Structures are given as C-alpha cells and as structure tokens.
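Task: sequence design from structure.
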C-alpha cells in the first residue's frame, strides 16, 4: 500500500469524508512529490514528510494552489511554500484549521490566511498563534518596497525602511473587560491605540516612516450604537520612548522602544455616552475588529448610573438543557429550569433599555463570569469532534461564549434573544472563573476500593489504639473539640467501615441541581444516568482550579477580554477599583480530607469549602495599594471584589442582628442570639455550657465575647474572624478591612460591592475608639427589601433539638417579633420592621451626611445566574436574583436600588429571531473562515458536556 493509500484509509477510518477520488491514480505533484485528488481535498506525499502522506481540505487547498502549491508561484518563478509537513489540523486552541508547509503555513481564520518566508519564520519563532502577536489577520502583503503581515496584536515589516531587517510593531489598546473612559474634549489629546517598536531594531526616523506606511489611515473606531466609523491619526511628530510589557501572558518580557499614539483628528467629535470598537482596514481593503467594546465617551462623571451584577455563570451547556428536558417529557422541569446564560441575556436587554432611556453608563461584574472555563466534549461549530488538550479549546471555551453574548454574536436558544450590549463593562474574576471543567448536575462520589481498604486498615488500627493518618482530622479533632471524648472519635473511624458498601453522596452544601431549580431526578436525566456516580478523581478534577492561570486555561480572558487581574479606573474625580477574586483555598484533594471537612475537621477554609462557601486565597499587597491610591483622591471610592470581606456562616441572615432593631430592643432578642450562635458552632458551645443550655452565653466566654448581648446597635465587636469569615477573601483580609475603614489614609472607602454567596446583604464597619478592633453593623441600609430570607429558630436549646424554618416578613406595622408565630398556612413567621433611616428615605440634599455616618458600606448582591431552589420545598427561599442600580448625583451616591429578576424579565419578552434589526454586528468577527468537509453524524448532548473528560493603575501579581 502506498503512503497516499494508507493516509486515505486512515482519514476514512477517523471519520473524514474524502469523497470520491478524482484521479484514477496518483500523479506527479512536481519537485519530486506525488498527489491524489478527491472531492473534498487532496493528499500529497514527498520524502520530506518521512513515511506519512498529508491531507489538505478544499478551502486550504485552494489557497495553496493559488500560490503554486508545492511548485513555483505563478508569477514569482520560485517555490514559496513547499510540501505540507502536517495534515490539516487544529490550531493551538482549536479555534481554526491549519496546515504547515516546508516554508509557510495556511490558517483558515480571518478568511484564509497565508504566511511564508522570513516573516513566517519570525512568527514561528515567536510561538505561532500562542506568541505575542496572536493569530494573523492578513496574508503576506507587498508594501512600500517591502513586505508586511498584520496580526491581532501587532504587525511585522521587512523592507527598505528597515534595512531589510524584520521589525515587529506591538499594538496596545483597551479591551472589552476594561474599556477606556474618555471625554470628547480629551479625545484629541489621549492615546486610543499605542504602537511600539524596539529601539535597537530601527532608528527614530525610520520608525516614523514604518508606522506611517503600515498604519496611518488604517485604524478607525466603529460606533456600537450606529456603526459610524471614525479614522484615527498617528502623531508622527510625537514619537516617544517607552518601556512596556507587550503582552500580559508573557512575564518578564518588557521592551524599551519607540512609541507612537493614534488619536482622533482635533476637530473630530464623538457622540456623548457612546461606545466604540477599535478596528483596522488592511491594505487589501478588508476590515477587522481588533478590540470590541473598548472605548466609551463620557464628558462628565458628576452624575452617572451603573449596574452592579455578579455571579453570571454563563456556559454553553445550559442553552441545550431546556430542549432536552422537553424531549424527555419533563415539561414542568423545562418550564422552571433556570438557564444562567439566559439570565445574562436578560440583563443585557435590561441594561440596553436603561441606556436608551439615558439611565445607565456602565456595568461592573464582580466575578464568576463563567460557570467553568471549558465544556468538555462539545461539538465544534464545523461539526468536528476532534479537539485540542482533552477537549479544552476555543469552541468549548465559555470565556469566548461570554464575549459573544456581550457583542451580540452568540447563537440564540429557544427562548431569549441575544442582543449586543450598548454600554461598557468592567470585569474581574471569581473562583468559578478559575475552574476548568464542568461539574455534574448531580454527583455521587464513590469511595474506590483502594480508599476502602485503607479506611478499613485505619479503623482496625484505631480500635487497637494505634495512631493513624486520619487522627489529625477525626480523632485528634474529637479529643480537642469534644473535651477528651476519644471514644467518639474512634467510633467515627470505625463507623466509616459501614459506609463501604454504599455510595457516599458529597454535594458540598447545595446540591448542584438546586441552583438550576431542578430535582435530583431531573438532574440525573440531564446526565443520562439513573445513577450518576463518579470517582473521587473525577470529583477532584471538577473543582481543581488553574491557580493564577499557571496552565494557561484562562489565556483567552487575559488576551481578549481583560489583560489585568486587578486595576483602578478614574471616573472623573471618583475611583472604581476592581479586584481579582482568586481561586478556592484549601480544596480537599482526597476522600479523607473531604470527609473530615464535611464533619467539621481540618482547616477553616477546607470546612468552608465542604459546606458550599469556599474561601479564596485572598489579596495581594499590590491590590491593597490600589485602594490606598484611590483613597488619596477626594472623590468616591467604589470597590468591586468577588468574595466578600464579611460574611455570616451558613448563609443565614438573622433580622435580629439589624442595627435598627437592636437600637430599639436588642435585649429582647438575646434568646434568639443564643440559638443562632449555638446552631453555628455546637462544638464550641460544649466547652462553655454547664448544666443547662437555656441560659445566656457566659460573657467571659472566649467564643462568645465578640457577639453582643443587650442593647448595642452593633452585633459584633472584634477582628471579624469568628463566624464572620465564611466564603471570604482570606490573605490580607484584615489589612483590607482597615484600609476600607480609613485607618491609614484618614478617610474611608464608600462602597465595597461583592457577590459569591448569592445573597442580598449589607453590612458596615467602624473602628473602635482605640482603633484596635472593628464594630460590625447590619441592616437594610440602601432600601428595604420586598422579601427577606427565611431564618431558623429553636423551640428549645439542646443538642437533640433541630432548628425549624420560619419566614421573615418585612412589615410597616408594629415592631419586630421576638418569637415566631403561626400563620393561617401553619407556617412559622417572624414579622420585622422597616428601617426608616435607609437611603431610600433620604433626600438627595442629605445623602452626603448620611454616607459620612455609615461608610464604608459592604454590599453583597445576589447572583444573575444561579437560583435558590424554588421547587419541591414547603418553605423555600424567595427568589432574590437580580442586580443593583447605583445612582451618583452631584458626586454623591444618592440611590442604590435592588432590581429583582421579575423586573429584569419584563425587559426580555422578545423571543429569539425578533431582535436582529436592532443588532450591530462586529466587523470581521473572530470565527472560522470555512467549514471542514467531514461526516456530520450528530452532535454531543448535555450528558457529555456535563461530564468530566477546566489613566488606570495596573497590578500584576503573577510573580508574587
């Protein structure tokens, strides 16, 4: 069998549809090689390939032939490309198909792009598409007596102006997730695009000439609102020397060189409150978008409005779930299913409506943009199932999907339309953004035989008094916490043996089905299993983060959406500080640690993780400096971070902790405070409680010393580490609280906005007179909610009694109930009062005085995506999903309004396909140039996507 016949057989076996052969036999391809053509491509062979022939599909083949194929170029009389040295294959991130040749490469992206010769060799040495230049957006172009090639992040030139040396020009521009805010009065003075060429590569005069040749007259802005275009002009007479980092993914590669800024012509005016893309017109007339949604024009920031949204959790798989549920006759489940991606679509429509009404300037999103990075076994858009790096590629990347939703280019599902967002967004990352692969809708984690045998051995050792590795988690924990009850610790170990024949369900607090509003049965159907069991290794993979992007799985975010982890933006005299939320801390990495954490042993962060409130690694020093720099100025300081700084354990938010209630009758709720604290930490109470548990907490108790009894308006005084640090940023947390409280800069931050916990809660802090501890207050500070959380209460305080659920109703009549009452539905109900001193009742003229008494204010906003389960529970939590609209008037935060999901839904009644005349598509959208000829024998369903197969101040913490 010939090499070509062998390759044809291999391709057919792998599912590639070559079609019928067009040549009866192999034919001469020139220069010592042979070929055979088929309907859908051609196979070549030459001895430079070794023993393996290589295949080109028709799209790439057409370009190859235009340049002479393996032979001479039709007009240049020399061979430019040579024979293929690879098959048609995926690019580094699976975004497009490509073929590498002896001296060239063809990429099926931005149409079909061909590079060859010295510029190709330079780009190859730089790392191809993974290097600092990114993907090519043009062929090799003859220009000014030389040749040039354009890329996503720069250009290459070689010719007379460079003394025939290759010159790299690096592009610097704002991005979708950190746009440039600028007034039209500044527009002629401000750099919109900056170019850099290394100093030692060319002299100043020639640098100006090269910049002018390649880019003057080629860069322009596109209005997102109406598609108008505005040419950018390079300031050729103002070349400066700069040292910059050409690309955020390349550490310690700072370059010193000549920099040139591109601005609008002096007389050109941009429309107020409009957003723009940065685009390029290539010498052949093709137009491409370099950076979408990256410039917003606003002349004054005295008055403005913005949305705080968080926990978006978009993922492609949720768009397929409703149809699958309907196909399986789960119509009720389909009707109630919560599609996180639809939540974002609705938010975009809501924001656009407010923008068009003149009521919105930007959105800040504090983390969990995506539910996880990669979908796993997801079909490519061209139908191919072959993928890169274990199905972690461009087409399964949810950051790509997030960008598509923002730019209005995402496909639509069967219910909600996709609109292009009309206002800028500022993004930062959360813990889910660092998780790489999907989690199942429902998981039973199996204890495998190896772990079973180890547990049995340890149980036998423990029974004989022999120390075991589990002592640190169970026995020693029991000895210390339970006051020497060693036998109880030992019995726990022995009791594990009884579980070995069972499956151990580990759902980490909130069952995964609940956040989609599904039952376990419905979740099992979506993963095509009546028994969705996974191994402990699979469970670990679902929750293991790519810490600090060490594996590169977040490259797309840092290259295309936001180059920065944390940053500061000036809004006139005000400051917006966005902090990277980081990844989960102390994730249990084996069954033993997981079981221990479920039982309350191990590190505090591992226990928090096991109970559904993971802590993150915390802040870096450079991020504290961002806040301190903002506090040096005189305007508002608004901080966005994913994990909160303050959070009550177990996601319960008791009304009797509220400042307005405690100020009136704090003593009346001492019994409820005792019950609340007892439920939070029974183990700690065992050391304090004497003969009866129905007495007040011992005021001298170490455990209870910070929690206030009596009529103090604050509910806790101390460092905030006792039951207030569940699901928070950990490292430098106290330093960050001190900075926000104004300890170092003599002024406090105004507003700290967070998410992560999926709740609507507000808290403020103040430093004590000695400055050595904090006082914590909570209330409805900004406005009184329509609905509030359910709470727990105990009829009696004992180790055997269980907590009961009670509804909390905010009423305008009477006072707060110290004890719950039964209503007509036989439900327990607490009535609680309005806070009449909240911001909603404050006149604009008095808002400044109100803030001076209450800042810093820490606010958690509920998720845009996940829900508290609404079905199958007698007393379920109210649906608190939504966002906040924050109004600044005359440089004061005058209103903060919570917008519930039902209000957002009113903006999203348009069905898919009805909105296209309102959309303004991107120029040169980043996508495949063509489809690959293959057998398209069906896609991959939810069951596969759900299973495991991953002037601004900059702080870069990669080396910290």
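Answer:
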């Amino acid at each position: 069998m010939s090499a070509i016949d062998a390759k044809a057989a291999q391709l057919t076996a792998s599912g590639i549809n070559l079609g019928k052969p067009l040549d009866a036999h192999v034919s001469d391809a020139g220069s010592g090689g042979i070929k055979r053509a088929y309907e859908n491509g051609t196979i070549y062979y030459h001895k430079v390939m070794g023993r393996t022939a290589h295949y080109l599909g028709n799209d790439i083949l057409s370009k190859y032939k235009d340049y002479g194929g393996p032979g001479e170029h039709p007009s240049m009389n020399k061979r430019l490309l040579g024979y293929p040295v690879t098959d048609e294959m995926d690019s580094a991130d699976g975004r497009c198909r490509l073929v590498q040749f002896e001296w060239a490469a063809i990429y099926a992206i931005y149409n079909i792009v061909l590079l060859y010769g010295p510029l190709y060799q330079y780009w190859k040495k730089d790392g191809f598409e993974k290097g600092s230049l990114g993907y090519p957006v043009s062929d090799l172009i003859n220009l000014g007596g030389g040749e040039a090639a354009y890329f996503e992040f720069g250009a290459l030139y070689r010719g007379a102006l460079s003394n025939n040396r290759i010159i790299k020009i690096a592009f610097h521009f704002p991005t979708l997730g950190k746009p440039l805010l600028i007034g039209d009065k500044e527009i002629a003075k401000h750099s919109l695009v900056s170019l850099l060429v290394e100093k030692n590569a060319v002299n100043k005069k020639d640098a100006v000439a090269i910049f002018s040749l390649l880019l003057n007259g080629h860069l322009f802005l596109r209005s997102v609102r109406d598609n108008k275009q505005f040419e950018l002009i390079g300031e050729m007479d103002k070349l400066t020397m700069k040292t910059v980092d050409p690309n955020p993914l390349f550490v310690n590669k700072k370059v010193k060189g000549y920099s040139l800024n591109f601005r609008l012509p002096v007389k050109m005016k941009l429309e107020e409150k409009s957003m723009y893309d940065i685009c390029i017109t290539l010498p052949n007339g093709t137009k491409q978008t370099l950076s979408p949604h990256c410039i917003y024009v606003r002349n004054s920031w005295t008055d403005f409005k913005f949305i705080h949204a968080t926990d978006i959790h978009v993922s492609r798989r949720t768009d397929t779930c409703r149809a699958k549920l309907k196909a399986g006759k789960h119509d009720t489940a389909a009707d109630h299913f919560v599609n996180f991606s639809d939540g974002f679509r609705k938010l975009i429509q809501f924001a656009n409506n407010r923008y068009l009404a003149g009521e919105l300037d930007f959105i800040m999103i504090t983390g969990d943009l995506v539910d996880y990075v990669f979908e796993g076994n997801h079909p490519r858009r061209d139908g191919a199932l072959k993928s890169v790096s274990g199905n972690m590629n461009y087409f399964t990347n949810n950051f790509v999907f997030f960008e598509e939703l923002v730019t209005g280019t995402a496909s639509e599902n069967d219910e909600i339309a996709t609109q292009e967002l009309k206002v800028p967004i500022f993004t930062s990352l959360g813990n889910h953004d660092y998780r790489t692969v999907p989690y199942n809708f429902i998981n039973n984690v199996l204890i495998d035989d190896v772990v079973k045998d180890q547990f049995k051995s340890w149980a036998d050792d423990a029974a004989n008094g022999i120390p075991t590795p589990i002592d640190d988690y169970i026995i020693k924990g029991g000895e210390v916490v339970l006051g020497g009850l060693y036998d109880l610790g030992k019995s726990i170990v022995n009791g594990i043996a009884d579980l070995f024949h069972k499956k151990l369900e580990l759902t980490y607090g909130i069952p995964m089905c609940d956040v989609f509003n599904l039952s376990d049965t419905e979740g099992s159907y979506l993963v095509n299993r009546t028994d969705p069991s996974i191994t402990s290794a699979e469970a670990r993979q679902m929750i293991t983060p790519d810490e600090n992007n060490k594996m590169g799985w977040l490259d797309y975010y840092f290259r295309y959406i936001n180059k920065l982890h944390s940053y500061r933006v000036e809004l006139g005299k005000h400051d917006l500080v966005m902090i990277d939320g980081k990844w989960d801390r102390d994730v249990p990495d084996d069954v033993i640690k997981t079981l221990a954490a479920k039982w309350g042993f191990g590190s505090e962060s591992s226990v928090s993780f096991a109970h559904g409130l993971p802590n993150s690694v915390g802040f870096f020093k450079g991020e504290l400096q961002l806040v301190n720099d903002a506090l040096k100025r005189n305007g508002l300081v608004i901080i966005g971070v994913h994990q909160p700084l303050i959070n009550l354990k177990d996601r319960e938010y008791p009304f009797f902790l509220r400042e307005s209630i405690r100020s009136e009758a704090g003593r009346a709720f001492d019994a409820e405070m005792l019950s609340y604290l007892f439920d939070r930490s029974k183990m700690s109470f065992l050391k304090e409680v004497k003969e009866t548990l129905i007495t007040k907490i011992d005021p001298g108790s170490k455990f209870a010393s910070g929690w206030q009894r009596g009529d103090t308006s604050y509910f806790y005084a101390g460092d905030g580490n006792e039951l207030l640090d569940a699901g928070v940023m950990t490292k430098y947390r106290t330093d960050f609280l001190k900075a926000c409280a104004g300890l170092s800069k003599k002024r406090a931050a105004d507003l700290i906005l967070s998410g992560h916990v999926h709740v609507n809660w507000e808290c403020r802090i103040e430093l004590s007179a000695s400055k050595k501890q904090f006082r914590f207050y909570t209330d409805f500070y900004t406005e009184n909610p329509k609905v509030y959380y359910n709470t727990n209460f105990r009829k009696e305080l004992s180790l055997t009694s269980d907590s009961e659920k009670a509804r909390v109703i905010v009423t305008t009549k009477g006072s707060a109930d110290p004890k719950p009452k039964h209503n007509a539905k036989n439900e327990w109900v607490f009535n609680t009062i309005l806070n009449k001193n909240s911001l909603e009742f404050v006149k604009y003229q008095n808002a400044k005085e109100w803030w001076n008494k209450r800042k810093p204010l820490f606010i958690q906003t509920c998720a845009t995506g996940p829900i508290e389960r609404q079905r199958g529970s007698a007393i379920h939590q109210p649906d608190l999903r939504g966002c906040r609209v924050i109004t600044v008037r005359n440089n004061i935060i005058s209103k903060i309004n919570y917008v519930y999901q039902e209000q957002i839904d009113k903006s999203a009644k348009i069905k898919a396909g009805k909105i296209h005349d309102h959309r303004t598509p991107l120029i040169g959208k980043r996508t495949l140039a063509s489809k690959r000829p293959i057998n398209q024998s069906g896609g991959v369903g939810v069951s596969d996507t759900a299973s495991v197969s991953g002037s601004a101040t900059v702080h870069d913490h990669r080396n910290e």
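The CA atoms of residues 245 and 843 lie 48 Å apart.
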